[in-house]
Structures are given as structure tokens and as C-alpha cells.
Amino acid sequence: MNASFAVLRPRTLWFILITTEGYRVDYPKSLPNAGLVGGKFIDEDVVNGTPGSLIPSAWGNAVTDELLSVIVGAGMVPNEADLTQLLKAIRLIVQGGSGAFAVDTGIANTYVVAYAPAITAFTDGLRLSFRAKTANSGASTFAPNGLVAKPLLGLSKVALQGGEIVADGQCTVVWSAAIDSWILISSTGGALQVAEPTKSNHAVPFAWLPKRSFAANDYIRVPDVPGGLIVQWGVGTLPASGTTSSRTTVTYPTRFPTAARLVVAMGTGTINTNGYASIMSTDGYDAVAASLTGDSNQTIVFNKTCPFVWLALGN
Fold first, then answer.
1. Lowest-pLDDT range, 66-80, 86-100, 149-163?
2. Does the structure show a pLDDT above 60 at 22?
3. Which residues of the chain form beta strands (DSSP E)?
4. Which of 50, 95, 214, 219 is deepest in the core (most CB within 10 A)?
5. In CATH, what number does 210-314 get?
């Protein structure tokens, strides 16, 4: 092999950074006249008369061309006066992330993506992006390049419920080795899953927001955060007891986490055909239910059922 050589002078520093054609990431060990010592370049020692290592032109050109390919590949114009152009090029390529983005080819709730270069192993912290083919309707999985499909969880680390991914949405996921799952950290157009808040400025799940519509038996928390006052209400019916009083028990729509503080009721109908109304009172209550009594002032018999409404406060 014919090759030209250059002598390394003192303080000349060479960095072998990237694979090069013919020589790879290594010193030119296959050339006996390169003058390597211990497999590495050495400087010329003028005092002791020791020659410096020789650099073959093919090797030097290969390294330079390989470095230039990175700069050009980043869309930059090589500039020999700019000693930071390789760093800039690498940053541009990383920011572009072309190798970490691909298009999903799976079906709803099963996201399958082929990346180039291929993803061959689950690496903790690996971040990938893809354009979803379909929206999700519930719990989902993600499988890059034929790897085993793993659960795709939301930011609160629980299964997706539906609507977190939309068709043609741009999704970004990251692999968590600790929970053996992918985490969906962003999805354009999709709903964002949030964890249970612990501080005043934290986001809250939709289920914690005040309701826009209510049922006949329902509740609301004011303010709608843990520890807030809970207001519950409902309707019921006193049975036709055949006596001057009638009793029943109502169960709240939701349990009071601490205790019920107040329960009141009011009759909304009559207790007999003569149109007498019931006087309602509370016999007792706890965090789950209340015992209510309808009374006719000890004179009129409950010979028909009597509807009533009730209200409970607690926390």
C-alpha cells in the first residue's frame, strides 16, 4: 500500500472520534511504518533523536472526511476557522432527532413503530416519538422495531383510559425500567393524564373538578380538593307504617372520609288522603348513612307513603 506520511510535532493533539472507512475507530496499527509506540502516536524527540510517529494520508483523509460528513449532514457549510463546528453539528442532529421519530403502523390501543436505526433493546430513559395512526380508546401498548409490546402509561403511571392519543397526533414516550413500561409524556391533541395533586398549584384530575350536572341523589365537594366540605343530597320515601310515625334509612351517594356533620330532611308529600304533612327528624347518622323519622304529631296515621328530601354536610 502506497501512502504519504506526516510527522507529528510536539504538542500536536489528535482525537479519534468517529468510525472511519478502512481504519474504524483505531490507530493505524496495520501500517508497520506508522511509528506507533504502545499502539499510540508519539512526538518527535529532538534531544534523544527519536522520530515521531508517521500519519498515513489515507488515514488522515478518512478521519477528516468522516468528520466533514457529520457537519454537512447537519446542514452546515464546513468552515476551517470554526473550531466548534463539529459540536454544533452534533447538537443540530440531536435536536432534529430524525432517528427517534417514525410513523405508527399498528391499530387502536396497539402502537407499533419501526425506527431507523432500529431500536434493539429497552434502555432506561430512552425517548422516542411517533405519529399515531389511530386514537386510543383505553389501555394501550407500544412496541418499537418488533420488541415485546409493553404497557403505555400516562404521566401518573397508570393505564391510559381513552382519548390520550388522537389520530395523527405527535406522541413522545420514554422507557422506564423501574416499572417495565413506556410513559406517554406528550401527545398533541390528546388529553393529559395527571397524578393526584398534593400542593395548591398542582393540576387536578377531571374527576375532581366540580360537576356540571347532578342527579337526584348526588354530592359535591367545596372546594373540590381533598379535605373540602362535602355537600350531599337526595330523595326518599317514608313507608305507609299504619302508625303515627314512619322511619327509613338513607345511604349517602359517597362516604364522608371523616364524618357527617349535619343531616336534615323535609317531607314533600302527604301521609294520608286528608293531606296531612309529615314532620321530619333525624334519629342518628354516621359517615355512611342517616336514620330519618316522619311524625304526624301523634294524631294522624301514615296510611300512604310519603316522599321527602334530605341534605347532609360533612368532610
1. 86-100
2. no
3. 5-7, 54-56, 101-103, 110-113, 127-131, 140-144, 150-153, 170-176, 181-187, 218-222, 229-238, 245-251, 260-267, 279-285, 289-295, 306-314
4. 219
5. 2.60.40.3940
